Amino acid sequence: MRILVVNVNTTQSITDAIGAQAASAASPGTEIVPLTPFFGAESVEGNYESHLAAIAVMERVRAYPEPFDAVIQAGYGEHGREGLQELLDVPVVDITEAAASTAQFLGRRYSVVTTLDRTVPLIEERLEVAGLSARCASVRASGLAVLELERDEGAAVDAIVEQAARAVEDDRAEVICLGCGGMAGLAEQVVERTGVPVVDGVSAAVTIAESLVRLGLSTSKVRTYARPRPKRIVNWPPPAA
């Protein structure tokens, strides 16, 4: 089984971390292929960058030359999953939905701890679209930018733990979701300091993708995610500036 794990930003070190986390969660015989988009922002922290990343991820997957069995979109709260589902005949799993759906098996209510406050509405909207918001106690911001997560892991864990503890105490959350692909690999440290289950979206997405492949299941093509209709697309890729 081969699973493509696509970072939504263009920072290679984040792709490497996501790939390592995905590989650690994969079953024997599953090949994890981490991919970095050809274009886009170095970190995704707003609507413009998210929509740009959606196109970049789709184009990166379309350019992959070998067969694959599933795709993981490794950006929390980002756009584009629906487009991938239209384009592909294999399962597509988004880490936002993978984390939240997994959390619901572990407790009555879950909270998400993410990066900057400006990303909170994006995550709330994506959970609403996915039908996963009813049991979400809160989405909390750690105040850290995406690129800060890898510069000082200790400070990142401290900030995440602080908000996770507030989610448990103030928002009555029973499970915490790590709300950024760049937080891959931090779950164990957060568990140790909060005492509640902590779901890493990358790991959850790998497990879900493997299960769908083994069950022989993929996205329905009856209506919502039918393949795009053949038509002429003008000036794509866009001409160089």
Offer a quick outline of the entry.
By secondary structure, this protein is α/β, with parallel strands linked by helices. It has helices spanning 12-25, 47-63, 81-87, 95-103, 120-129, 148-151, 153-170, 187-194, 201-214, and strands at residues 2-7, 31-35, 70-74, 92-94, 110-114, 136-141, 175-178, 198-200. The longest helix has 18 residues, at 153-170.
Give unreliable regions as ranges.
Answer: none
Strand order of the largest sheet: 2-1-3-4
Q: State the major sheet.
A: 4 strands, parallel
Number of helices: 9
| β-strand amount | 15-25%
**H/E topology pattern:** EHEHEHEHEHEHHEHEH
Question: Could you describe the 3D structure shown?
Answer:
Helices cover 42% and strands 15% of the residues. The chain starts with a strand and ends in a 27-residue tail after the last helix. The radius of gyration is 17 Å and the shape is globular. The chain has helices at residues 12-25, 47-63, 81-87, 95-103, 120-129, 148-151, 153-170, 187-194, 201-214, and strands spanning 2-7, 31-35, 70-74, 92-94, 110-114, 136-141, 175-178, 198-200. It has 241 residues and is an alpha/beta fold. Strands 2-1-3-4 form a four-stranded parallel beta sheet, with helices on both faces. The chain contains nine helices and eight strands. The model has no long low-confidence stretch (mean pLDDT 94).
Question: What secondary-structure arrangement, pairings included, does this model have?
Answer:
Layout lengths: L1 E6 L4 H14 L5 E5 L11 H17 L6 E5 L6 H7 L4 E3 H9 L6 E5 L5 H10 L6 E6 L6 H4 L1 H18 L4 E4 L8 H8 L3 E3 H14 L27
Parallel strand pairs: 1-2, 1-3, 3-4, 5-6, 5-7, 7-8
Helix pairs in contact: 1-9, 2-3, 4-9, 7-8
